[in-house]
Design brief:
With 290 residues, this protein is of the alpha/beta class. Helices cover 41% and strands 12% of the residues. The chain is globular, with a radius of gyration of 19 Å.
């Protein structure tokens, strides 16, 4: 994982007539899913085919932001919630298909009780305040993690948000709440093992695609880009299986200060990289099929 650094992405054609077949196909997919998206206007220096379909973000730095401003931790989390709205809107402008946010990890229960309570209240408030906006923008909400272990008001708020947007066919906002990747993988293994025990599944039939389908993220494309803010250089038990081939980008910016231009800088860095997926540099790389 390397910190943010200046990169020069491939120059995008200025008119649709100059787009490659790959760019035209990507642009058609983006506009089919998000009709309002206009990557050529909003990110003209990045070809549409180089815009990641799935971006995952570890949102770090809320507490440090609060301390720097002499405020309680809860103020940092509220400010971070405003950043969520900015980045969701930016994804809609440039055509990102899935945005997954590490909202609350299964290890976060170790934090002080008052901070946890503030986070839970913020989650409920977010579900209520953002529902109409997500519907208006055609964004479907999805939740991964052990939701059943959350306080009832949080469970209800998340359920109502997911149900309200379930009929939407646009991009996906995936919230990882009470989520830990090791627990997710363990649960997937147990479900497959139970099928083997019942005689429904032969052990030799288990492959990567079957494991994919048993994970919380089943049905979503794998993350192309993983962003972590606040300069931390670790994965923190987040999407360990899913980010096997993701490009990693670390920003020193604290999450509450992370803006649209910071996000675009990450996209430009991603677009400038040569994704080989284990192949040679001169080969045209494609993501491994699952």
């Amino acid at each position: 994982m390397t910190p943010e650094s200046p990169t020069t992405p491939p120059t995008a054609p200025t008119t649709p007539h100059a787009l490659s077949h790959a760019d035209l196909a990507a642009l058609a997919r983006i506009r089919r899913l998000t009709p309002r998206a206009d990557p050529l206007a909003n990110l003209p220096d990045v070809p549409p085919s180089r815009i990641p379909r799935h971006v995952a973000i570890i949102m770090d730095g809320n507490g440090r932001w609060a301390r720097r401003h002499g405020l309680p931790h809860s103020a940092g989390h509220r400010k971070g919630g405003e950043t969520v709205r900015r980045i969701v809107e930016e994804c809609g402008r440039i055509g990102v298909e899935v945005l997954t946010l590490y909202s609350f990890s299964s290890e976060n229960w170790k934090r002080p009780r008052e901070e946890i309570e503030a986070l839970m209240e913020l989650c409920v408030a977010y579900c209520r305040s953002e529902r109409e906006g997500l519907l208006r923008e055609g964004i479907r909400a999805r939740v991964i993690g052990r939701v059943e272990e959350l306080p009832p008001p949080v469970r209800d708020g998340l359920r109502e948000l997911v149900e309200a947007t379930s009929g939407v066919t646009g991009p996906t906002l995936c919230l990882a709440i009470n989520y830990g990747s090791r627990a997710e993988i363990t649960g997937a293994v147990r479900r497959l093992a139970e099928r083997v025990r019942l005689g429904e599944l032969a052990p030799e039939a288990i492959d990567e695609a079957m494991i994919d389908s048993a994970l919380d993220t089943a049905g979503l494309p794998e993350p192309d880009l993983l962003i972590r803010t606040a300069g931390e250089m670790r994965l923190s038990n987040f999407l360990l299986w899913q980010v096997s081939y993701a490009e990693l980008y670390v920003s020193d910016t604290l999450w509450p200060d992370f803006g649209a231009e910071d996000f675009r800088r990450a996209i430009r860095s991603f677009a400038a990289r040569d994704r080989r997926f284990g192949g040679r540099q001169e080969q045209t790389a494609q993501p491994p099929s699952r």
